[in-house]
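Give me structure tokens for this 168-residue protein.
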Amino acid sequence: MMQKTKYVLIGLFISALGLWGLAVTVPNSFSSGDVVSASKMNENFQALKSAVDALEAKVAFAAVGRALIRWNDPDATVDTDWSLNTSGGAIEVERLSAGRYNVTFKDLAASQPPYGTALAGSRDFSGGHCNVTVVKEESTYPDVVLGVRCFDEAGTLQDGVFRVVYLR
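Here you go.
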């Protein structure tokens, strides 16, 4: 998963870099035969540096506070190939009872306030569904704990296969 995430982030960065290149205003332009002064070149480099710094800040902000988990079996471990915690912390799932789970993203809120939104989905093709019933951010700080519940078609709790995404 980290390999795929790396390529997605690189793709986004390259796309943003292309758009950024259109938006950078270079204060001095030179034509063939013009005398180039160090001060004018320094102004151009400073404009470029300011634009790069602003872009780096946006990319760094976008990468913080994101998490994803793929859970395939109540007796299994977290699928690390398809799960992500941008803090680098562990991802844990605790099965409380049939169809009831707590998903913990360790240290996810360590660098910024822990206010986010979570969404769950099921891969139960027989009509079952899963949802996030609670997002525990403040009481478990810096960890983010999500309560996930899975149901069959009739609405009865059942163990399920789910995916959860958390965005801050």
